[in-house]
Predict the structure.
Amino acid sequence: MSVSAFARLPAPPYYTVIFSSRRSAGDQGYEQMAERMVVLAADQPGFLGAESVRGADGFGITVSYWISEAAIAAWRSHAEHRIAQETGKARWYEHYEIRIGRVERAYGKSP
Amino acid sequence: MSVSAFARLPAPPYYTVIFSSRRSAGDQGYEQMAERMVVLAADQPGFLGAESVRGADGFGITVSYWISEAAIAAWRSHAEHRIAQETGKARWYEHYEIRIGRVERAYGKSP
């Protein structure tokens, strides 16, 4: 994903998927699929928002926010997303970690 | 923080602080303080690990992991960290969002 901006979220509680990854060398279709997944995720029921950054060294963090665990499970099972997951595992990421949790509190400073 | 690597965490549950931010222009002492906060956080009771990325456009995500909500509260109240928080709010970040939650599940692919 390349959503280098803040997600606008409702008040907690909500659920989160924290996806940390290190890219393999070469694009291998990654950018196109990543763009597609951003659009597709945003269109899923229960999607609240996402934020994403990747550094020049290939290490990245994408955090997505969801209304329920069921919404996360449905997105995980989405047919097109499953193909992306399998390709990611086989080709795009040399290492990734996924942590799923429930956000209880939130605060910040807006411009 | 500039920990562009994976945190090695125990099995869930554990707690997380997801810190998204956009830097203001200019360093203004930021890099030195950020390095110091990485070292200091890692030395706190209940700290499990952290991952951090900042993009070229100044948007960054740092996710830290903690053994309990009490450990997060103690770190938030740490005197030196409080100075960093106040300076961050006043000077280093034009926008930030903090979301605190509990990680329930985790999985991944290691090289």
Chain A has a mean pLDDT of 94.
